[in-house]
Amino acid sequence: MQFYYDSGLLKKRVLRDLEIWLPQWYPKGRGSKGYFEIGDIGGTPGDSLKICLAGAKRGLWYDFATAEGGDVFSLWGINRGISGFGNILKDIAGYYGINGCEVPGTKEKRGSPNRRHVYLNADGDISCYIYRYEYTDGRKEFLPWNEATGKTEFPSPRPLYRLPQLMKTDKIILVEGEKCADVLVAAGFSATTLMGGANTRIEKTDISPLKGKEVTLWPDNDVPGRKYADNVAEALLKLPVSSLKITPPTPDKPAKWDVADAVAEKFDIAGFLAKAEIYKLQEKTEANGRLKIADFTGAMFAAEPPELQFVVKNTIPRGVVGLLSAMGDTGKGMLLLDLALKICQDKTGMSLKAFGNTVTTTGSAVIFAGEDTADEIHRRIYKLMPGGLNGRIDPAKLHIIPLPNTGGPFAIARKCRGSDEFCLTEEFESIKMQLKAIPDLALVVFDPLASFAGLDLNADPRAASYITGQLAALATATNAAVIVAHHIRKNDGITTPQEARDAIRGTTAIVDGVRFAIAFWANTAEEKKIFAELDQEYRPNACFKGAVVKANFGADRTVRNYIRSRARAVLEEVPVKIVPKILSAEEFDKLLIEAIGEAENAGTPFAISGISGLYENREKLPLELQDASRDFIRNTAKRLLASGQICRTSQTGNGDKKWLGIPDAGRCA
């Protein structure tokens, strides 16, 4: 658990006592015209390092000999032998007897940052801080603090890192990230970086101080690192710089290997920099892009097309991303766990059913459970398979990762640092590599989608498109069915597959981005009749309808009835067809009039025919009326109109009275 310390309060306390601390830290220093002077940060006699004692800059220091500077927190850390901004705050709080607040390390309440980097302007004044937060789930977050505006935002323009030192040298190494620049400087080199990391927008940084200098690029050992170097190089060559070099490739080093790793392993940095080559800007042509149009010709489609493979016949294909949607407490997790167990049952799984059709694939399955613990999943497996696995499946093929037991869910994507674009997280990149290595992978589940997205899927269609696109790429790469569990809005009024599709929560880009969607909704209209037909005692929240509500292939779209099994606690299809009673003419008229009145009151009235016609929307009529023929329903409505039992109304006030209503509603005049 992290602790939050009020840095503003602590800063005030230290600044209040600055005249007490400075003589203790620097007994050979002296005050002079609003400044405290000393030779260097280590306390050598002299006057090149000045600490401001007055005004808004009180506590800021600058060494004119080394072009280094900082604030009162860095002074405290240096003189107390403490590194890390969070540790410095903790030490100050301990000295002054100020307690921290215990908070989780979340985005909303981050706790103390693990590291802080200071950006100075050319005069040595603080322009911006970059705070680095490291969370227990492996995530990292970088936040700027604009000293001039007092807001969490980048300054404009953004200065180069360690700018005052750059002004005094002609040879500079440009790296990726403040940490790498700091370790190079500590090793005796002049180094800088751009605020915002590998995905920064170069045009927002003032790189003019590098004009005419000798610059060597040292990118991280990965594709984003090289892209960062190329983008920076293009801007530097336009200044221009006097020379531009780049360090040689390091294929023998691990991915993401960087300057900090090199220093830690006592790598020959000077020798490596001596091997740097003159940078050659690649000409940007169509051949440099990810896609090469010439590779995609009609020859791809000359032979017989491959047969579409299914995990579940005519319902869940392989190699695509799909969606399972239902209200909370429907049992989405149980349905997906049940499917995974059946896939892992070797050939016996081929005779089993899921979602109303036959399981046609056996292989490996992976479930990322964002909300369920290992104990809960264990109990569910025993519900679905009484007695447990017991040799009925190969345990090596079943992979269930209970994220609450591993520190919480990981994010698939995030906002790129310093950009409005989206980037995959390092953890998801690792997950992708591991999934590709699993033999005969047939199913991958993310339950629920909201726990893993890392982006706002409800408000941002771009985010939804990005996430579904990345999951589609994963499905293509593994030839597995990738299924995400997602919520449906409150069930009131859902009676058709189209209404269920429309009720899937979030932006429509979620449904548009998947290749199929299966939905379940409560069957409140028929549940008591179904239990009676099955000769079972009525149970609430146990009767549902389910169907494929979106598919980009010839799917089985049959609407099926499901009952929650008492023994297995999972929804199981029941072969029940509710046979409506035979109605007299008076009973038929009464039910039709009631249905017309209910639709009118709900603001979705029927018409005699057309897209809102009674017959065209017969699934919204009482069950007893749904098997009547088109002509019988229309003729009955016309007869009721003629007798005045129903009437024509106008919904919009434009005089177009094509809708049906009842006289009691007062809209038939």
TrEMBL record:
It comes from the Bacteria. This is Toprim domain-containing protein. It comes from uncultured Alphaproteobacteria bacterium. The lineage of its organism: Bacteria, Pseudomonadati, Pseudomonadota, Alphaproteobacteria, environmental samples.
